[in-house]
Amino acid sequence: ILIFLLLPVLIVSVYSVHTYRNLIEEEMEYLNQNTMNQVRETVDAVFIEAEKYLFQLSNNQDINQLIKANGIAFSVYEDIQLSRNVIQAITITSFISDYIHSVIVYAPASGYVFSSTQGGTEIEQYDDKDWLKGWAAADQGPRSFVARALPEGGESIISSVMRVPFSQDQHNGYIVLNISIDKIARQVYQNHAPIIDDIVIRDNETVLYSMKNKDIQLSGWQALINQGGQNNQVVTVGRENKYLYVTDSAVGDWQYIMLYATTHYRQQAERIAMFFLVLMLISIVGALFVSMIIAVKVYTPIQGILDTIKNPASSGKEQQSIMKTPEIEQIIGNIHASSTEITHLQARLEQRLALFRQAKSAALQAQINPHFICNILDSINWLAIDLAKGENKVSNMLVMLSDFLRISLDTDNTMIPIEEELNHVRIYMNMMSACNSRSYEIVWDIDEKIKSLKTIRLILQPIVENAIEHGLIAYEETGQIVISGRLIEQKVILSVHDNGVGMSQSDMERLNQEMEQGYGLVAESIGLRNINQRIKLLYGDAYGVSLEAAASSGVIVKIAIP
What we know:
This protein is α+β, with helices and mostly antiparallel strands. Among the domains are: 59-183, 2-Layer Sandwich (Beta-Lactamase), CATH 3.30.450; 317-364; 415-561, Heat Shock Protein 90. It has helices at 2-58, 61-68, 77-96, 130-137, 181-191, 218-228, 263-310, 317-322, 326-366, 370-388, 393-408, 418-435, 461-472, 505-517, 526-539; strands at residues 100-107, 112-115, 119-122, 143-149, 156-164, 173-180, 196-203, 207-210, 233-237, 240-248, 254-261, 415-417, 440-446, 454-456, 479-488, 491-498, 544-549, 555-561. The strands form 4 sheets. Strands 3-2-1-6-5-4 form a 6-stranded antiparallel beta sheet, sandwiched between helices. Strand 10 and strand 11 form a beta hairpin. The longest helix has 57 residues, at 2-58.
């Protein structure tokens, strides 16, 4: 008993710990990936915005005029005004965003640099020329990014350098927009401080930025990426394990690398594991206590009850000794009563089985093999042909009757193609034409797509028979029956429309209501009742038989099957 009590607790505990760990990992992966996407979108948005400002400045007439000038004389009013306009334009741009550190315009022809922080000066006297060295070492395209640290405070920036004019092959100067990547990283880190351990930006050749591990070179980061293999993999940085994520920038040829601390998630997993461990220990102690109670207070009376069930007729001292409570006495009394009732029921069941065997024997004696009937009709047909020295009306009728009974009495195949059901109706109509002086016009309007679909047998012929007996026999004009079939909204709709005398609206509503409810119908509609009940039993209440009044005369009987 103890094993059966503890085993479910152990299984549930192990499963719960495993499931919770998986949930934590899934939550962690989702949160880390979402954070990674937010960081990438934030930084990319800054660079996209910076690129927009660069293009705006590259189209500034004053800046283009300044860059094209071979020299600048600050004693000339026009040059002074031009310099002021350029400094004003780049200063306004530097104040647009908190992430823009400064804006520089460099005119090599005149040898002057104009900065939003230092104003205008000659290039030799300007102390921030690292962007020019970085650009010269890069591919020197029309637009480049240079990562560097400012000399005055060591602040990390990425300089977006654009040659001007941008749209011409001949470039005369440069516009540099310095982006404070430290501010962006601090903002991102503040928003996601519990999980982000480091933010790294690298291109194919160098590490552009690292928030914490600035001493790790490109080869070190590449080794970490190779170690991780793919996102959400654990890598070792120093002596600590980190989760590594890598994604490409949407605006530049660089990658974002994120390191996430595992401590937060590991602590959660350890807490839940400890919780389930304590729970399992408590469950073990509780199970021991409960098993003792079960053994002492429950199992002994139950054993006596089980003995009573095995031998209800016994009333020895052992059964009497366990009847210490009214509940036990009531249970054993009910067992004796049930045993007596079961004995009577067994006797009645044996009696009814004997009657059933007698009825089954009588039914078997009265049963006629359908194949035997068809064989007899075939023999009579050949006898009629022999007597008449050839085929005649009687032999033709026997052939049609044999075919009709072969289909009607066949119990081997419940489901048949709709085409076979239509042939059954054709045989029936041929027999009716041969037996009656009146002829009936049959109009077939069957969609070829439904002929191969399966249906239960004998659903059309009884309806056609009802149409003749109740609608067309009393009709003085030429009787017509239209049989149609369509596939409508995943349902096969078969309809039989006669132009006979029809029926009253009240009778039609009553019949439809009775068939919808599924209980017995009147005698003249026994064929409809049989078909409707068979369809509903096989396919469900959504299908069945319904009646409609025709627009001109007669009745339309519709059959809906899947």
